[in-house]
Amino acid sequence: MKAYTLNDGNVMPAFGLGTWKSPKGEVRAAVKEALRVGYRHIDAAWIYQNEQEVGQGIGEAMQDGVVTREDIFVTSKLWNAFHEPDKVEKGCQETLAALGLDYLDLYLMHWPIAFRPDREQHNSPEDFFSLEELPLSKTFDAMVKLREKGLVKSMGVSNCGISNLKKLIADCEVVPAMNQVELHPYNPQNELLEYCSGQGIRLTAYSPLGSGDRPDSMKAKSEPPLLENEEVGAIASKENLSPAQLLIAWGLSRDTVVIPKSTNAGRIAENFAAASHALSAEAKAALDNIGIHYRYVTVDSWFIPGVTYEGKDFWS
Ligand code: A2P
Q: Is 48 among the residues known to form the active site?
């Protein structure tokens, strides 16, 4: 299985199981099954509201002797309501308690957006800290302290564009090891990939299959389903792969980490098989040039006039 050495020397499996949208009641078995078939990397987050079940799946696989803690790589993410430096450890400890683990291999700042934790809704300027009041660097510096306490091994960010990364690199002593962002042929983010490679920041591809199981409230009325793209289907047939397998192999061919979500045993195995497929240069080039540009995961409801998170700047 392909693995990458991060900028802090820690080694991370290139392929893992995503758990965003994995329902409680299904995700425990999915995680256990994934570990049984050979996955060694599980991606979780506080906000997915299923970390306890993810942890049960990991715990059962360990009890069954399938894996030891050292065999696996577990990522989780600090939620937006824990950005104040004195709340960062609380966010991490809640995740560790839910997962039933005493350390994380990788801990990411989930969004470059800070919620005021005392607000239930986040739809007006008063519900957010501005980046001037609470710079990302303050939150990231507090995350670095978690490593000193042995709670996490590597630290990174998620959903950061180049401008946010530049600020972090300028203001923090530690360069993030990872930036987890939406990546697939419709949203390849080539400029971000090039910038991050130059800075020693690895990218993880979330929603690598186009995230078709997002709730309707998160979907635009007419969005192009990536897995149903005819060209993707035709290239996949030529490679003797399913469309999902092709998309996974494409992500790995770009030296990104890829974390497809599935709670279906057959598709969990199918996706795992793709992780050892060497994609032909023709197939890679055809996907590189697919010509459709689309971002599935937008956070428009957090882009409010008067808040520092403006849609036009956010992803740049
Ligand atoms: P399921 O969990 O029922 O397998 P993403 O990783 O981009 O968020 O995509 C997740 C979606 O893709 C889910 O709906 C998941 O369904 C589906 N999916 C995962 N693996 C495959 C596969 N091999 N073939 C088709 N759909 C898949």
A: yes
Contact 57, 30 (CB under 8 A): yes
From 48, 107, 206, 296, active-site residue? 48
User: What's at 240, amino acid-wise?
Assistant: N
User: Residues 12-33: what's their mean pLDDT?
Assistant: 98
221 or 269, which is more confident?
269
Supply the pTM of this predicted model.
0.98
Span 153-188, pLDDT tens digits: 999 999 999 999 999 999 999 999 999 999 999 999
Helix, coil or strand: residue 152: strand
Question: Helix crossing, 27-37 with 265-274: angle to 10°?
Answer: 40
Task: Tell me the Ramachandran region of residue 291: left when phi exceeds 0, alpha when psi lies from -120 to 50, beta otherwise.
Answer: left
Long-range contacts of 92-98 (CB under 8 A, 24+ apart): 92/143, 92/146, 92/151, 92/152, 93/151, 94/46, 95/44, 95/46, 95/51, 96/151, 98/46, 98/51, 98/52, 98/54, 98/55
Spatial separation of the C-alpha atoms in residues 106 and 262, rounded to whole Å: 21
Residue for token pair 């700042």: 109
Verify whether ligand 1 is closer than 6 Å to residue 262 (CB atom).
yes
Does the beta carbon of 213 lie inside 6 Å of ligand 1? yes
H or E, element range at 191:
helix 190-199
